[in-house]
Amino acid sequence: SQKIEQNSEALNIQEGKTATLTCNYTNYSPAYLQWYRQDPGRGPVFLLLIRENEKEKRKERLKVTFDTTLKQSLFHITASQPADSATYLCALAGFTGGGNKLTFGTGTQLKVEL
Amino acid sequence: DGGITQSPKYLFRKEGQNVTLSCEQNLNHDAMYWYRQDPGQGLRLIYYSQIVNDFQKGDIAEGYSVSREKKESFPLTVTSAQKNPTAFYLCASTQKPGETQYFGPGTRLLVL
Known about the structure:
The complex is a heterodimer of chains A (about 110) and B (about 110). Chain A is an all-beta fold. Helix content of chain A is about 0%, strand content about 55%. Chain A contains no helices and eleven strands. In chain A, strands 2, 4, 5, 9, 10 and 11 form a six-stranded mixed sheet that branches. In chain A, a hairpin with a 6-residue loop joins strand 4 and strand 5. Chain B has about 110 residues and is mostly beta strands. Chain B is about 0% helix and about 50% strand. Chain B is built from no helices and eleven strands. Chain B has strands at about 5, 10-15, 20-25, 30-35, 45-50, 55, 65, 75-80, 85-95, 100-105, 105-110. In chain B, strands 2, 4, 5, 6, 9, 10 and 11 form a seven-stranded mixed sheet that branches. Chain B is globular, with a radius of gyration of 13 Å. Chain B starts with a strand and ends with a strand. The interface of A and B includes residues 94, 100 and 102 of A.
């Protein structure tokens, strides 16, 4: 069955360091991979989308990589700040059948400490 | 301002009662979605609609029903058949299915 895995343990890092979050998937041929940020008690907010023929995408302090051979995406936040503390969700949309909907991972909680 | 609104923010359900969660968008999006989120878990798709008067079941549709009579509105009814309804419910819409989704603020449903 299709599966999306994100590290369920919280990631704690110091302010100013680079945070790296991982999203692995199996039995899936995604057309798009997306990353969202979710704060407690709120709806997710879109951050970045990367297509299956793209290797890397950047937006300000954010960078996403997409390796369809490894079936993995890495999400990086450089020069992290306490305000970056949140849960980060990855989501995939497939080529066939599931192309019109997203499947979400369980998310990884990031805590940036002073 | 464009966006998605959900109401109410908190909703309490009694045993055997049906309740309806509201979702409205003014983004002119054709596709709308309902998700359920349980503590420590990801979003699970309940129902989605790609066009007015049409909708499809998601992964966990049992005990829920929807309607899509207007482009702007996609209400979700949690029926008495849903035995474990306590969760955080999120509505989303998108201009192009599979691409960026825009989420509402969510409704937290609690059982009395």
